[in-house]
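Why does this matter for the project? Reviewers at the last site visit asked to see concrete outputs rather than summary tables. In response, this paragraph embeds two records directly. Each consists of the residue sequence and, immediately after it, the corresponding structure tokens. Nothing has been edited or filtered.
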Amino acid sequence: MFEDLLITVKVNISVIRAIIKTNDRLRQISFGASALIKKEWNEDTELILGTLMQDIPKVIEWRVYDHCAVVTRLYAIYERFVEDLVSD
């Protein structure tokens, strides 16, 4: 049973890592390295990214939200792990 709990925690943490990496890449595209990517853009890409850019928060606000979400989610994962461990 303990192994099942550990696998669940590891899967949840790997999802968090993937989300962090994805958001970091999106921030790089939005605020940084977009000049490198523009070479591969077409009209559809410009329309999609233009629409997306209208709703993107400032980089600092985005990072703060990400950090808060990650800390909250990690707390929930470990809290659930401890509760399941104690109940077993």
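We now turn to the second protein, recorded in exactly the same manner.
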Amino acid sequence: MQMHKPLQGLRVIELGQLLAGPFAGCMLGYFGAEVIKVEPPGGDPIRNWREIKDGTSLWWRSLARNKKCISLDLKTNEGRDLVKQLLLTADIVIENFRPGVMEKWGLGPKSLRQENPRLIYARISGYGQTGPYAKKPGFASACEAISGFRYLNGYPDEVPVRPNLSIGDTVSGLHAVIGIMMALQARDNQTAEQSGEGQVVDIALYESMFNLLEAVIPEYHGADIIRQPSGTTVTGIVPTNTYRCKDDKFLVIGGNGDSIFVRLMQAVGRNDMAEDKAYASNADRVQHEAQIDAVLKDWCASHKLEDALNILESKRVPCGPVYNAEDMMNDQHFNERGLFDQVEINGEPLKIPAILPKLEDTPGATDWPGPELGAHTDEVLASLGINAADIAALKKNGVVTDS
């Protein structure tokens, strides 16, 4: 029996391009929402980013899964009118244009509220819809920098490092989904007199990354401390670090709990340190971080990764290997937990990551991979009551792009 997905019955219109908005749409579609992705005539740029196979990015097949794709020219009155018709049928819109663009097109939340008061309007931008930075270009790289995240990411006295991922976009997409779910709950909790109205969800990339900063702000305001980058460690927590093993593979050890530290030192043959009260608490260990790290560095360098893992795990010390894509794909636990979905592209299988979290009774699923440009044009326009002759005329005039 096919399980009911938790977001079935919701219609989402995804506008905008690249990553933050589309990642939010991907999550909603995975869990059952009908996601209609509106692309410009040339398609979302991610169709042509990074590794290309059979003319389309492999990334696209993952990011655009379960979406119904229609290509509209929003520079035309007819294209904008079609988008408005879609928005009037929707529960949710996700847009990540520059602030003011949707208003210029007559598609802002105030323009739609009278005709579709239940619409939840999720807006993703670099710096938010208000404030002096609102109109600045807001790519994730710049927003990660101003958020405070990049300052902490790297090594002391060196150029800050960026992860080899667009983390600001993905984290913003997650925040958008959280905001949308809250807005849905608020809408459905309203009384009959309030008519169940939607609201605007305003997501800024820099604020999404700012939300990850833990104690950085209160430490500065309350103790005048600006946390600094710390390489592969974490400030004020010892020991937690990454070490190179004998076979040139890397091992992360998190031995910062008091009882865990005792077991860790026993595992590496340093009972003297396990019993020494000079290392008894985390505050004590912070004072001796260099000495502890030197011991663990030497021990890991004398053991192959697998052997080191076996020894540490036998003592219940939290640790783990540093995996690449091949390691993950070959790992039994990853596979048994269902972290890879398989789709078919032109008759060939392709593994893409499953979307989390896992729901026991109403799980999400990948129903189809990212489709070709305009693949669902006829279906989507027909859902608006547009007949075949008018659809053909729209295609002929270049307002919509056929598959």
